């Protein structure tokens, strides 16, 4: 699903957090967003998912402008899946119930139908054997894969990832990135905030560098990592590579 962001501006009180953001995410493309802490990456992702309001500009998901009317916005939002740094699973529900909850409550599916879909995606993230467990019984990497499966259950046309591996121990990062790489290879449209540069090089069509609320550089990964044109991007890369 194509996403069009045009002239986006957002303030938290008097703090100008997003400044004149223009970004097109074509259907089937993969975009990685990086940049220093506080540069507005999460805020941008949250605006696209309708979790934050904004004061200027527009966001259109699949041609539907967010905010035009509540019903259209709800439908557009249903097309986006979001994965957070902190997993955000419901601790009192099993893995399977975490995945079936929205299918049953929102889409009014039968238990049987919802569980079939949930198990399909739990297999996709290579974790079907954990279906009856509770989140606290799983490792961080497993919990994050459940969070990805849960998002996929609603058949999103755009997947948003906000630093999905930042809270994980190093040995678990790869199992989550592997799932993201296979999603990309199946053609999922993806917008990923991540500092995993190996992942960016492997799957991203474009890398975006944000600083102080602005997109200051957008380039193909080979160009961005080879020779970023912006001084702040260069300094940033020197720190993380
Ligand atoms: P990033 O994800 O790039 O680290 P964020 O989008 O989380 O950056 O935050 C950008 C800036 O906005 C930061 O300076 C942060 O402190 C500020 N900020 C984030 N959320 C809020 C909020 N709810 N109210 C006020 N300021 C906020
Ligand atoms: Mg953030």
TrEMBL record:
Pfam family, one: ABC_tran
Segments forming domain ABC transporter: 3-237
GO molecular function per UniProt: ABC-type amino acid transporter activity; ATP binding; ATP hydrolysis activity
InterPro entries for the chain: AAA+_ATPase, ABC_ATPase_HisP-typ, ABC_transporter-like_ATP-bd, ABC_transporter-like_CS, MetN_ABC_transporter-like, P-loop_NTPase
SMART domains assigned to the protein according to its UniProt record, in alphabetical order: AAA (SM00382)
Transmembrane stretches, start-end: none
Keywords: ATP-binding, Nucleotide-binding, Transport
Family, as annotated: Belongs to the ABC transporter superfamily.
Protein name stated in the entry: Amino acid ABC transporter ATP-binding protein
């Amino acid at each position: 699903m194509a996403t069009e962001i045009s002239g986006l501006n957002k303030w938290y009180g008097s703090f100008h957090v997003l400044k004149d953001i223009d970004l097109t995410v074509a259907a089937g493309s993969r975009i990685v967003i990086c940049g220093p802490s506080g540069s507005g990456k999460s805020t941008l992702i949250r605006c696209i998912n309708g979790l934050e309001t904004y004061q200027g500009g527009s966001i259109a998901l699949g041609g539907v402008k967010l905010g035009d009317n509540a019903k259209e916005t709800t439908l557009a939002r249903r097309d986006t899946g979001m994965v957070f740094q902190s997993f955000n699973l419901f601790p009192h529900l099993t893995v399977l119930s975490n995945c079936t909850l929205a299918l049953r409550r929102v889409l009014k599916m039968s238990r049987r139908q919802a569980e079939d879909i949930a198990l399909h995606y739990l297999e996709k993230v290579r974790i079907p054997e954990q279906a009856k467990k509770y989140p606290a019984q799983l490792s961080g990497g497993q919990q994050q894969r459940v969070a990805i499966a849960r998002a996929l259950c609603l058949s999103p046309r755009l997947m948003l990832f906000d630093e999905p591996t930042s809270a994980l121990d190093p040995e678990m990062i790869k199992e989550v990135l592997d799932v993201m790489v296979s999603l990309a290879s199946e053609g999922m449209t993806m917008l990923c905030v991540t500092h995993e540069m190996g992942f960016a090089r492997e799957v991203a069509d474009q890398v975006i560098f944000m600083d102080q609320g602005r997109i200051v550089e957008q380039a193909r990964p080979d160009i961005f990592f080879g020779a970023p044109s912006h001084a702040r991007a260069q300094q940033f890369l020197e720190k993380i590579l």
